[in-house]
């Protein structure tokens, strides 16, 4: 009888290399899958390592263009940002990788998949929900949630001992005291010394951005052109260099933004599973695009449409963070947001300088901005006398509140005694 085939989401690191050997011990045939989403990785060395351990094959799939065009660009178009700070670099990569994983599982006749995500994190949820949405019949082996595996392996020391016993190659480079996940959009850092939120991340942690204190003394200025909310062209104004392909645009902005220290954040966030976690992120290119898109969006959209769209974008960011990219509610909200973007076309000039990105000008034929109407130099078609009635109508409820309850004394709510000001 032939063995069941397992497709393992493989990284080449200690965890998934040990999981590969462990799956072979459970009498499975294991094929390894690696998705190239722009991370710095020696795929040839990882492939050789997996085959040496005993994998029947290793599939390396280049997904950089697919990731940028089908996940990163829509996220920019929708203005997605989780809890007002995190641009979802890892969250967006997971449904992309899952698509590649499921495609290969079907092609190779694998009935099971496996991964090395831990039981406390978001990735286990993102991977598995995406895979079930794409292939409801797939089965999952999650070793770090299995009692037999967890009893055998408490942590890294047990894995190292296991690797030594079975001659599994282990990097001679000392492990950094934090974990890292990278793709073409960002790098995230967590765990280890970062688990204490009161300890600042060391400068050597950063790989995509340099410290703003060491950034160039001359800003980098670029013009970004959007069509229906999507970036379609970027021009560096000093050199005249122009990029139009999504991957080329992101690569350029990553480099330019990174040189100026743009896109660093250090946050505590709410994981879907209910825990709070501390994460450090570098997202230079998309930080620039998000800033430019937001400016153009405000310039082009009706005020009330913008507010509804913002609400929907917050919901969509939650869906993406929680692993629901392929869920029906996400598909519905995505369509609604994209409808709002049909007039978000134009160009924005941004300046990257010492940790900051600032919009300096914008143009669009679709803008509802009326310079004559807004001007303080002429009345235009606006009658200033109408403002009297506008103010009086809006004052009705304030006067009625005063009639019933008296003056609202807001200042008393902000008074503080000396003891209130002491840190706990």
Give a description of the structure.
The chain has 424 residues and is an alpha/beta fold. The protein has two domains: 5-172, 3-Layer(aba) Sandwich (Rossmann fold); 180-301 and 343-363, Argininosuccinate synthetase, chain A, domain 2. Helices cover 41% and strands 19% of the residues. The chain contains 13 helices and 14 strands. It has helices at residues 14-25, 43-53, 64-78, 89-108, 123-134, 147-152, 156-165, 246-259, 284-300, 303-322, 328-340, 371-374, 386-405, and strands at residues 5-9, 29-36, 57-62, 112-114, 139-141, 179-182, 187-190, 220-227, 230-236, 242-243, 264-270, 276-282, 346-353, 356-363. The strands form three sheets. A five-stranded parallel beta sheet has the order 3-2-1-4-5, with helices on both faces. A five-stranded antiparallel beta sheet has the order 10-9-8-13-14, with helices on one face. The chain is globular and about 85 Å long. The termini are far apart.
Q: What are its keywords?
A:
single chain, Arginosuc_synth_CS, alpha/beta, Argininosuccinate synthetase, chain A, domain 2, nucleotide-binding, 13 helices, Rossmann fold, 2 domains, 424 residues, Arginosuc_syn_C, 41% helix, five-stranded parallel beta sheet, ATP-binding
Question: Summary?
Answer:
The chain has 424 residues and is α/β, with parallel strands linked by helices. It has helices spanning 14-25, 43-53, 64-78, 89-108, 123-134, 147-152, 156-165, 246-259, 284-300, 303-322, 328-340, 371-374, 386-405, and strands at residues 5-9, 29-36, 57-62, 112-114, 139-141, 179-182, 187-190, 220-227, 230-236, 242-243, 264-270, 276-282, 346-353, 356-363.
